Predict the 3D structure of the following.
Amino acid sequence: MEKLLIIGASGLTGYRLAELSSELFEVYGTYNTRPINIENCEISQLDKTNKEKVHSLIKHINPNIVIDCSAVHNVDYCETHQEETWMVNVEATKFIAKICKDVKARMIYISTDYIFDGTAKQYDEYSKPNPLNYYGISKLKAEEEIANLKINYAIARTSLIFGWIPSELKGLESSSKKSINFVLWALNKLRNEESLNIVTDQFSTPTFVDNLVSYLLALAKSNENGIFHTTGKQCLSRYEFTRKISEVFNIDKDLITPVTSDLFEQIAKRPMRCCLSSVKSEKLLGVKPYPIEKSLLKMKEQENEYILT
């Protein structure tokens, strides 16, 4: 079997990727601050910015594919911790790409819809980036660094990832103080009968983590290089998305109040409409983007495997 190394296997994407890839690959994973245990996956502690350890680990494993899921991705934290963000999201990513080139491994990098400014109706892989915040700036720079190295690579841009993960269910924070994805946050609040003010003017393409993993595994097996949009099917406002969550999980919709984003003070500027088209990925990779109801129903079916705290 080919060897797959997942950098950042303690995060939502990396964890689910490790769980679902063991029949296809010999799987290795890393964590930084949140220890994990995943069946059929050899786990190592790794600070992505420690070049000596990164070099040693990749050389030792000698993987065929490296999927980099690790990043500082708390958008407001990135704005106030720019040096740390640059070191993790850009410099460390570039170094990993260089080692991948040395060992002739294919590199897959998880990027974001936040490289766009949110002024267009929809974005495909050929749309011009224009990030509004430092998180988006760092992720776009990492994309450019990987492409400039002329390695065997794929960049998977995604949006508002959601799903189950033990570390988030336990409330364990990432190094950038992000502890829970949007659906888990909304479910916790709504099930405790807490009222939610949810914005109607910020749009994205919510992506169920299992659907994203399908894209990533297809990219791992593909010879196609370049940028791929790997999201769910529908463009929704946060308010519309939260209403869908309440419908599928049978929770009172009246707890959700529509508001506009000017009600909230946020450190980093957000793009208002970041909706990605996954037509290219569907065509080249044969992966179907999930409609939002299918995504949430699949998540609901998995709930018995997890404990929501």
Residues 207 and 232 are 4 Å apart (CA to CA). The domain at 3-305 is CATH 3.40.50.720 (Rossmann fold). Residues 82-103 form the longest helix (22 residues).
